[in-house]
Each structure stands twice: as C-alpha cells, then as structure tokens.
Amino acid sequence: MNFTLKDTNSIIEGFDGLGYVVDDELATILFLMMKLEKPLLLEGNPGVGKTEVANMLSQLLEVPLIRLQCYEGLDVHSAVYEWNYQKQLLSIKIQEKSDKSETEKEEHIFGEEFLLKRPLLKAITSSVAPVLLIDEIDRADEEFEAFLLELLSAFQISIPEMGTVKAENRPWVILTSNRTRELSDALKRRCLYHWVNFPDLEKEIRIVQKHLPHIDHSLAKRIVSFVQKIRERKLDKTPGIAETLDWANGLLALGASDLDNEKVIQSLGCLLKSTNDIERVKKEGIEPIMEEIEAR
Amino acid sequence: MSYQHASDFGNLKEATIGFAHFVREKGLNIGIRETQEALMAADFGLIESYDTFLYALKSIFCSTEEEGVQFEEWFAQFWGQRKGAIKSRLTIKNQSNIQKKSPGSLVWMGMGDSREDGEEEGKNVSGANKMERLRKTDFSKVAHMDSELLEQLAMQLWKQMSLRMKRKMKLATSQGRIDLRRTIRTSISKGGNPIPLKRKKRVPSRQRLVILLDVSGSMDKYSFFLLRFIWSLRAHFEQIEAFIFSTNIVRITDFLDRKDLEHTLGLLTSSVHNWSSGTQIGECLKTFNEAYAKQVLSGRSTTIILSDGLDTGDPELLAVELAKIRRRTRRLIWLNPLKGMQGYEPTAKGMSAALPELHVFQSAHNLDSLLELEKYLSYV
Fold first, then answer.
1. How far is it, in rounded angstroms, from Cα A82 to Cα A116?
2. What DSSP string runs through A74-102?
3. Which spans in B173-314 are helix H?
4. What's the gap in Å between the CA of A8 and the closest CA on chain B?
5. Which among B31, B46, B195 is the nearest to A28, CB-wise?
6. Of A8, A36, A73, which has the smallest distance from its Cβ to B40's Cβ?
7. Apex A119 CA angle, A117 and A123, nearest 5
8. Measured between alpha carbons, how far is A122 from A65 in angstroms, rounded to an integer?
9. Do A88 and B45 touch (CB under 8 A)?
C-alpha cells in the first residue's frame, strides 16, 4: 500500500494524485474516521458527490469497495446473508439414505458452503479491510437501521444456525443519506457526521478541470458560475456535480468555446433533468444569469 | 459551574472537556464517548490548526446540518478568533490571575456574558418543558413567536406517528409468501420429502384516508395547522384524498402531491376562493356524496372530518349525508377543535345532529390531540 496515514495533508495529496479534489474539512474528517475507526455518515442533497467519497477512499487505500444500495423493504436476506435453498434441498435428498443423525444432517446443510454472502457479511469476512458503502440508508426501513446498529458498534453478525461471525478486519464504513427522513439518534451517535454541500465556485471549477483537462479555464469558470446561479433557483431537481460535468462535456461536444444564450438553451437538457425545470428556466429567462456572469 | 471561554482553562485537555460541557448546555446531545473522541482527535494533532479542530469536533458532536451551522458559532464563541493556534487561547496557569484582570480578557469575558444572556433565552425556548407545553397549547393561542417551533415539532411528531403506524400494520397480518428458510428447516426431519410449505407474512397495503377540512371563517385559526397535518399524513398513506369545504367543496388531493409544503400552500391559496367564508356543511357533504364518494370511499377507507360544526345550513341534511358516508366507509371520525375547550358541549345544531352518525368524536385543538388519532388510523 502506497498510502500512509500521517496527517490531513497526506490525505489531500493522496487524493490529488488520484485526480480527486478534496477540501480541508472532508480530509480532516476522513483522517479522523480512520484514526477513530468509526463509521462516517454523509448527508447532503442528491448529486453532491457523497457516493464518490467511498469510491475515492477505496482507491486511495487500494482496497475493494463493497456497496450496499438501500431501498424500501431491504431485509437481512438481501443485505447480510441467505441460505442457498436449492443446494440445501438437493443435499437433503442426497443424504436421505445416509445413516447420519438428524442433527448431523442439519449441521451439514447449514455449513458455510451453503451460505450466500451478501454485502454486509462479505465486508465483515473479507481478508483485507474493505470500504463498505451503505448507500442511501434513509431509504431503508427503520428495522434495518436498527439491525445496522449491532453491526456498526460490534462489527459482528449473528447467524442463528452458525453462531456469531466477528470481523477480522474492520471495514471502513461510509453511510450516505439524502435526508428524505431523519435517521435515528442511536445510529447517528455511532457515526461521525458530515453534511456535504455543493462545492463552492473554485472547487467546482477544479473538479471540472480535473475531469476535462482540455477545457479552457474561462469557459470552465463560466459554466460553473452558471450552474451555481441556477442552483439558487427553486427547481424540482437541483443539478449536481455530475450534471455540471455532463453539461461541460456536452458544450465541448457542441464545439463551444464560449457560453452564449443560444448554446445554453440548446444544451439545457444536460443540466436540468426535468421538463418542468427546463420550461421554468426558459420562461424565467437565462439572460439575468448570463449578464451577471458577464459582469464578473 | 459554567465556563464560557477557552481562556478559563489551564490546559488543552481541560479546555476540550470544558467545550464539550459548553455545547452540551447549548443543547447538543453529546455524551462521554463523544468527549473522549474529541480528546483523541486533539491527540492526533488535529488541534494544531483552528480549522481542522473545528471540522473534527463538528463531525463528532453534530448530527444534522443545522447543528453544524450553529456549532461553528459556538466554536468561535468558545475558542475565539479564527487565527493563530488553538493553544494560544489558553491561560497559562500561573499567570491566570493577572491575565484575567487585563483589559483584553475583561472585554472577552464581558462579551461572553452578554452573548450568553441571549443564548440562554434561546436555549429555554428549545428546552423540553417548552416542547411539552407547546404540545398542549391550543392552536389558536399559540404566540406568533412559537408558531414556527410548533410547526417543526409537529412535523417531527407526525412523522414518528406515521412510522409507528406503518410498523404496527406490518405485524398485524399473517399469510403470504413461502418462507424457504423455515420450509427447509422442517423438511430436514422428513428427509426432504414431502416438503411442508411454510409461509411468511407480507406487508399489507396501507389503508386509504379521506379527509374533509372545514376552512370557514370560524376555523381560521386552526385550518392552517390542520392543513399541514393533512400534508404530513400524505406521505404515509398509500392513498389519501383531501377536500376543503366552506360554502362549497373543493378537492385538493392534487395540490398535496407536492414535495414542498410552501409550494402547496401557495397554490392552494391562489386557486381556492372559499377560504374564511360561511359554512354549509350539509350542502357540502351532499356535493361530496354525489360527485366524489363513489370514487374515493371504499370499505377500507377511513374518513376524517375536521370541522367545528358551526353550521348555517340545514342540520337534518347534514345528518342524512353523514349517514351516507358512514355506510361507505370503514370508520367515520369527526375532529372538532372546540371540543378541547373546557365546558364545551356539542350543542350547536349541526353538531348535535351529526353525533349519532359518528364512530369517533374527538378534539383537535392541539398537537397531542392530533397525535391521539394514531390509534384510529392504524389497524388495531
């Protein structure tokens, strides 16, 4: 592993080498997270790059990323483990004639070879400590959240038929939430907390330039300024960083070297992903924004 | 004993613990573990710069965006200006007597105190007692100052209530999909043949809710909150139909289908013209029965009428129409804000005509009374 955890600067430099832009605050928190070995809860609007943090971290530490996408109705069977029922049934059949006792048979079919590991169990039994991303935890049910508590404090999972599995290597856990509902205090208290905001102008320009190295600095600046202005409006879906990148890419593809009203209108679909929003912005007009950018 | 500024302490460890006390008093929910972690963070060298120490403590102590914003203020208040190292803020022990008298720190202390006064008020407002009281305060008597707070509290409690309801429903049913796990367990003893099927329960669909809200003049003080109540219920019922009525009835279900409450309220006020006029409950219910009842009422729906029952129309018509609704619905609930008043008797002509038709007659004048609805809205 190339990366050694010295101080927050080593994190910023490490990410910079991988082509990611990280601010002091996030670097400090990641540092703390690794030092304290605590899970990190990231909250923020959609599109601010919460999931990306886990991605970045796994690249930095050069460990696998294990991802659990939460949804309503997510249960232990799809998150932690499930028995391989087909195999179990077959095995029962095969053993039908054997003179093993019932307990022995039962022990056999609830052995490890019949166990299907889902993300959480995988993360705990992994031979190197992976980055475990629990994405959009706010979408999962309360019950599942309660279950996570056990996992996040003790890093162990109990399987009734097998006993308790304890983590050999504690995974680095990152949870994200869009805050569609408030998470329980108990869960929050087990995590470090970070509210992820949309990046400021300067940071977003750097992100755009990292992703699109050929883009002209002044064009990047104008694109980002425009996006930041449009975020201030009331929209159904506020464009995130991904949209900024899409749009910058789109504009480059159109051969734009500068931002003008016509091109903006043409390519608005890259930035705004709902008809309502596009119509609203068209109706309200983009001229005021353009003028403001011009004036800078 | 309470310390307000880093200069009250002799070393970093004490100051950090002091700061933990300081923000706990401000209302942050932090325990010993958080304090320990803060000390560890300081040990890791994060205390070297103001910013990293701020970021580190913020991530440990806060758990919402709003707390984070306030925390930065508190942090500045306690540790002082944003330049120089944190260490320089402490009073070196043997100098402490002299330093405290120096004009510089006197000014600081003074500032600390005056700020504290302001904060103290703020803290009391968000204290538990205040919350308890607000829950019991009649909506019409809530001071303007508190209404925002009440709204926050209400949203929070309603959310919890709907969640609880959801959970109850999950437990309530049997039957459903095959539970392979249990099936296999039991089939071991039979050698795998035959296979007795075990089933597991499914989450039943949420019930349908129909709400009729009176927005006539006499309800003015309540309808605002009740509308919010309806809006917050919306998220947790598969199907919710809402109507408002005064002299005529308007379906507002489509307006509710918005993520943003302010937007909903804005749309409502601009497109509904019968706010704060007279009341003709009977007439309105008649229109409701003729135009909407077939679509929206079914055996599994619960109907809630939110009205004070002060009616200028014909009470007999009201009774007849209510009976019609009652026949089509699982449960008919009338919530009357006036019922919360001491000595209230449902003697208004309309109300007394309606009473025999109702399954439930309840008050709806404060938060607690609305929360009580839970027992009727969940399957028992």
1. 5
2. --HHHHTEEE-HHHHHHHHHHGGGS---H
3. 180-188, 220-234, 253-256, 261-271, 281-291, 293-296
4. 8
5. B46
6. A36
7. 95
8. 11
9. no
Say whether both B191 and B214 belong to one domain: no
Whole-number Cα distances in Å, A89 to A86, A139, B233: 5, 34, 46
Residue of chain B whose Cα is closest to the Cα of A236: B259
Same domain, B180 and B106: no
| Max intra-chain CA distance, chain A | 88
B138 or B102, which is more confident: B138
Q: Is the ipTM beyond the 0.90 threshold? A: no
B324 plus B352 within the same structural domain: yes
- Report the residue from B46, B189, B192 with minimal CB separation from A89: B192
Indicate the range of A142-146, A217-221, A267-271 predicted with least confidence: A142-146
Across the interface, whether the CB atoms of B188 and A193 are under 8 A apart is answered no
Closest A-chain CA to B40: A36
Same domain flag for B225 and B349: yes
Minimum distance, in Å, between the CA of residue A78 and any CA atom of chain B = 14
More confident residue, B95 or A244: A244
Same domain flag for A210 and A183: no
Look at the pTM and tell me if it is higher than 0.90: no
Domain count, chain B: 3
What's the N-to-C CA distance of chain B in angstroms? Answer: 50
Is B151 inside any structural domain?
no
Measured between CA atoms, the residue of chain A closest to residue B156 is A182
B-chain residues near A25 (CB < 8 A):
51, 55
